[in-house]
Write a sequence for this structure.
């Protein structure tokens, strides 16, 4: 059975590195491109506040996510790997960890922002949280 590889992405640069790595490590696998729309980017801290997002914010984020995933899917297609695309809303680390089970994932390949020092301590690290809490292996592309 082919591996299902979750590739959570939030921008082109880290996404491209993660897709390239996933395609090289799992050439016969399925790359599951995954983007999380984070409500905190609109100034909210919980998913329950979705109905009160600023006008158009959520639609803009969905459109941005679609464009990002389409571009990265093209890259995966060029590498000859099967691709799926999914977009969800919530706290990124939590949603990624939930997606592992929901989408029957065998491995996670994700980029890292490479924060260091106080920035990492204050802001936390999505990649670090996923590495520590995932039930499947996680590879971080730098």
């Amino acid at each position: 059975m082919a591996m299902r590889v979750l590739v959570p992405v939030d921008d082109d640069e880290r996404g491209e590195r993660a897709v390239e790595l996933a395609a090289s490590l799992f050439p016969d696998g399925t790359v599951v491109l995954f983007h999380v729309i984070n409500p905190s980017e609109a100034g909210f801290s919980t998913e329950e506040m979705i109905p009160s997002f600023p006008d158009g914010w959520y639609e803009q984020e969905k459109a941005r996510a679609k464009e990002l995933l389409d571009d990265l899917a093209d890259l995966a297609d060029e590498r000859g790997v099967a691709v799926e695309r999914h977009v969800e809303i919530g706290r990124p680390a939590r949603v990624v960890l939930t997606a592992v089970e929901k989408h029957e994932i065998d491995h996670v390949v994700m980029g890292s922002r490479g924060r260091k020092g106080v920035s990492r301590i204050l802001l936390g690290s999505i990649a670090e949280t996923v590495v520590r809490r995932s039930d499947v292996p996680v590879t971080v592309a730098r």
Observations:
- Residues 12 and 105 are 22 Å apart (CA to CA).
- The chain has one domain: 4-141.
